[in-house]
Amino acid sequence: MAEGSNSSPPRDALVQASPSLVLLEVDGHTASAFVATGQGHLVTSLHAVAGARLIHAVMADGTRAEVDQVAAMDDRRDLAILRLPVTDLAPPLGLAPAPLPAEGDTVYVLRAGAGPAPEVRSQQVRAVQVLGDWLTLLELTRTLPEESSGGPVLDMRGAVVGVATAALANGRSLGLVIPTRYIAPLLRGSAASPLSALEAPRRRAGRVRKVPQHPLSVLEGATTDALESIATTLGHAINAGAPAYNRGDVDGCYRLYARTAERLIDSCKAFPGAQRALRDGLTRCDDLPDSDDRAWALRDTFDGLLDVIGRWLQKIRPEAARIARHSAPPPKDYLN
């Protein structure tokens, strides 16, 4: 065992899990995966395969197969379901429901290798992070090597409790576990897409925010009461739209933001600079290919206005600036 406490993983569970582990060779790097169904579904981390043009799966017995189908993706939870070309290359790993480990509990991260025996790392759970109704995850006490992403995580009894993810948050490397309960819905569908479907998540991961930096003159003609009202409206829209986006309702998030922008344009006739900023955000959406990009374009528009409103209120009345600053608290971002 590579590192960790003196606790020993359940030997029977390791023997049972090892044949189900799969080493993924992805465009020059490796990742872990495991077989989850008798139909050849492979579970792995989405970021490990995003944008892949060629994926080879290497079974524990050395059998190799080219993977060319994507069965499902969950961008927000960093999960991908691939499909093997043959269904009986490896046995599926049981994913029976199990209680989520608690803070301080020991877990075992399995990393697929070139041989039949996986690398096993023991770790403690640093914290159980509840990011909303869309995601609860485990943060581990130490980082994980990138090659561990996609591997199964066992608890002290040998039950599979999640998928290992080597993540980056605010410039800090983290070891995370995405619970297995998020896998089951992804396994229910029968549709399959080509590997080109993995290009979209890579594009989203590389998105550069384009929050406009407005001069204070953009708010010329505004009153404090009006700006406080706008900041509150923008904050309410973000606080409703962001959870919808995180649940996967990207189109609903975009439509909410668009309706909010249109409503504010009608109420900002006294200060045309703010009207123009909102119209520019909507116009930018016209040239974007999908609801995902449009939602972010309007979020950038809203954040730009909240910033300039906060600076304006700080100059006029410092206590009022807190309304703009706290209208939309920044979301936690744990996944790649």
Automatic annotation (TrEMBL):
<dbReference type="GO" id="GO:0006508">
    <property type="term" value="P:proteolysis"/>
</dbReference>
<protein>
    <submittedName>
        <fullName>Trypsin-like peptidase domain-containing protein</fullName>
    </submittedName>
</protein>
<dbReference type="InterPro" id="IPR001940">
    <property type="entry name" value="Peptidase_S1C"/>
</dbReference>
<dbReference type="GO" id="GO:0004252">
    <property type="term" value="F:serine-type endopeptidase activity"/>
</dbReference>
<dbReference type="InterPro" id="IPR009003">
    <property type="entry name" value="Peptidase_S1_PA"/>
</dbReference>
<dbReference type="Pfam" id="PF13365">
    <property type="entry name" value="Trypsin_2"/>
</dbReference>
